[in-house]
Amino acid sequence: MRIGDLAARTGVSTRSLRYYEEQGLLDSSRSPGGHRHYGEEAVDQIAYLQRLYAAGLSSQTIVSLLPCLHSPSTATSDGAFDRLLEERDKLITHISGLTRTLESLNELIATNRAHRPASVTDPDPGQPDETAQDPAHLSR
Q1: Among 33, 43, 91, 92, which is least packed by CB within 10 angstroms?
Q2: DSSP assignment of 39-66, as one string?
Q3: Which of these, 108, 109, 101, 110, lies nearest to 133 by C-alpha position?
Q4: Which domain holds residue 130?
């Protein structure tokens, strides 16, 4: 199928498909006229790539996981599993940092709120959701 057909079937732009190819994430063949052609398996591969991107993985990390997709084995699966655990740990660390930032911001808001005259309408009367501040539940 041609690039436009693959884009239509996957909901991914032709620009993104070209980028995937440049990054070594997607293979195509070329017609004599230079047009890209993809096999049926590209549809599933794009869905897999989209899940990995949605999980926050970089192109470089995804490239390192592709052997598991192309040639599944204990060795490639173990390597992919370890890499995914590393990525999850990085994400939890990042979320922890964001949580500390959010807590600091909430403290500043509370301090500012305490010093505002009662006659001033509070544009944010609600309290933040407690679970949004606890990244520990993400690793379960």
Answers
A1: 33
A2: -THHHHHHHHHHHHHHTT--HHHHHHHH
A3: 101
A4: 72-140
| pLDDT at 21 exceeding the cut of 80 | yes
Q: What is the pTM of this model?
A: 0.62
Kindly give the residue spans of alpha helices, DSSP state H, lying in the chain.
3-10, 14-22, 41-54, 59-70, 74-114
Q: What is the count of structural domains for the chain?
A: 2
* Residue 17 exposed, middle or buried by CB count within 10 Å (0-12, 13-18, 19+): buried
Q: What is the pLDDT of residues 32-73, one digit of tens each?
A: 999 999 999 999 999 989 999 998 888 988 988 887 777 777
My answer on whether 15 and 66 are in the same domain is yes
Residue after which a domain boundary falls, among 40, 71, 102: 71
Question: What CATH code is carried by the domain that includes residue 29?
Answer: 1.10.1660.10
The pLDDT tens digits for 108-124 are 999 998 888 877 777 77
- Domain endpoint, select from 71, 102, 128: 71
